[in-house]
Amino acid sequence: MKDFIEKIRKVYPLSDEALSLFIAETERVSFPKGHLLIRSDVKEKYSYFIIKGYARGFFYKEDRDVTIWFASSGMSLLSMNGYMFGSAGYENIELLEECDLLKISNDALNRLFDRNIELANWGRRMSDQIILELEKLIMERCFISASERYHLLIEQEPEILQKVPLRHIASYLGISQVSLSRIRAGIQ
């Protein structure tokens, strides 16, 4: 839990009081590797925060799944449509290893944001980070090669090769597993 608290305080320096308010509204849960935490087309009532573990967000397109992001300790797992609009989402979230999570209802999270300025600022900063990451992903897909994107990914998240199946990494990069194998062969 200490690592989790350090990571969320990097996003925004929450006081012990604000952090205690947040933790008091959550439930600690664990799920196994492969668990589908959030499903597309389901109205999600809960958001999750990773204490320990690794997950991916993906959607289905033309009978295959397309990975759009990865998440680790300190990060949130939620359906944006469920959280923001109370409607069904488009994304699925799969746990890539056994995960310890904090679970909180979207209603409780919004009440905390309404009542505590520190938590509201923390939530805003987390949203800002998500937007920046998605913007970065779009820019990378438009302007750099799959090989360069792969090198950036393993540079920024070196543990990803031990935690994530290569088919999900290939999907995230927008390439086939064969192309990823060729990229990897060129650097090993």
Automatic annotation (TrEMBL):
Record-linked Gene3D superfamilies: Jelly Rolls
InterPro entries tied to this protein: cNMP-bd_dom, cNMP-bd_dom_sf, RmlC-like_jellyroll
Domain of life: Bacteria
Protein name listed in UniProt: CRP-like cAMP-binding protein
